[in-house]
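so my prof wants the structure for this chain in the C-alpha cells format not the other one, which i didnt know existed until like an hour ago. anyway here's the sequence
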Amino acid sequence: MRTRKLRYVAGLTAALAIELTQLPGAHAAPAPTVHTVKPGQSIQAAVKAALPGDTIRLRAGVYRENVQITKTLTLRGAGRTTVLTAPDTASANACGKAGHGVCVTGTAQHPVRNVRIRSLTVSGFPKNGIWGSRTVRMDVRDTLAEKNGQQGIGQQLSTRGVFVRNVSRNNKESGIFLANTVDAEGGATDAKGTRVAENRLTGNRIGVVVRRLRNLTVEQNTAAGNCGGVFVVGDESKPRAGDLTIAHNAVQANNSYCAPNARLPFIQGAGIVLTGAETTRVTGNQVHDNVGTSPMSGGIVLFKSVVGIANSKNAISRNVLTGNKPADMADRDKGPGNVFTGNVCTLSVPTGRC
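here's what i got, hopefully its the right format
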C-alpha cells in the first residue's frame, strides 16, 4: 500500500512539472518586438537595437540613409510613401561605403537568414537599391525600386530568395539581378528554388537578369519598355547556367536602346534571351512587339555567350509571339539539343522553329 502511494505522488509531481513548463512564459523565448521609426529618426539605430526576429516598422515619409542588415528581421514600410533615398553624405556603414540603399549581408560561415523587406520605396542610390549577399530566404515584396545607378533589386552568393509583386523601374542596369557572384569567375551555383514572380519591370537596361545560376524560376512577371526583357547568362564555366524555368511572363516592346559595353553589343528589342544556358524551360510566355537591330533583337533569342559557348538542351514550348523583329523566334547559335515545340509565331530564324 505504501509503495502504491509513493508511485502516485511521484506521478503527480512529474505531471505537475510538465504542466508548469507548458505555462505561458515558462522558458519561452521573448515575443518579437516592433520598433517604430519616424522620418528624422535613424533606421540603422533601430536595426542595431533589434533582436533577431524583430520588426522595424517605418512610418510614411522620407529617410536619407544607407541601411545595413546582418540579422534576421523584417523591414516594413507604410507603402510607396515610405521612401528611402541616398543621403548627401553616405552612411559610415558598409552599405553606405558600397553605395547601396539596403544591404542584407551575411558571411560564408553564417549567411543571414529570413530577412523580409516589405512595402517601401528605395530610390536614387549610386549603386543598387536593395542588395543581398550571402543570404538565405531573403524575401522582398510589394516594394518599389527606382532610379538607382545599377540594379534595382538583386542578390549574389545566396539561396532560396523570394522576389514577388515588386515594381523595379528606371534603374541603369537590371530591374532584378540574380547572380552566383559579381566579382569572380566561376560555375553556376544552385539557387535552391529562388523565385521571381509577379513583378513589373520597366525602363531598365534589362528587366530580369539571371547569371550563372541553377534551380530558379522566373514566372508571371511583366517586362516592358526596357532594352531587354529577360536574360539568362551562362558563359563557359561549369556547371553551366541552367535547370531554370522562365514561364508565363508578359514580355512586350522592350525597344529602348542601350549602348554596348565591354562584354555585350548594344541591346534593343530583345525579349527573352538565352546565352550559354542549358536545360532551361521557356514556356507559356507572351512575347510581343520587341523590335530592334541588335544581334540579340527578337522575341525569344538563343545567342552565343560572350566567349562563344552555345546554348544546349533547352526546351522552348507553348509560347505565343507576335510582332517581334527581325524574328519572333531566333536560334542564332544553333547549339545541340535545343527543342522547339508548340510555339505560336509567324517568323523564325532559321525556319521551322514556330
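also thought this was worth mentioning. Confidence is low (pLDDT under 50) at residues 1-26.
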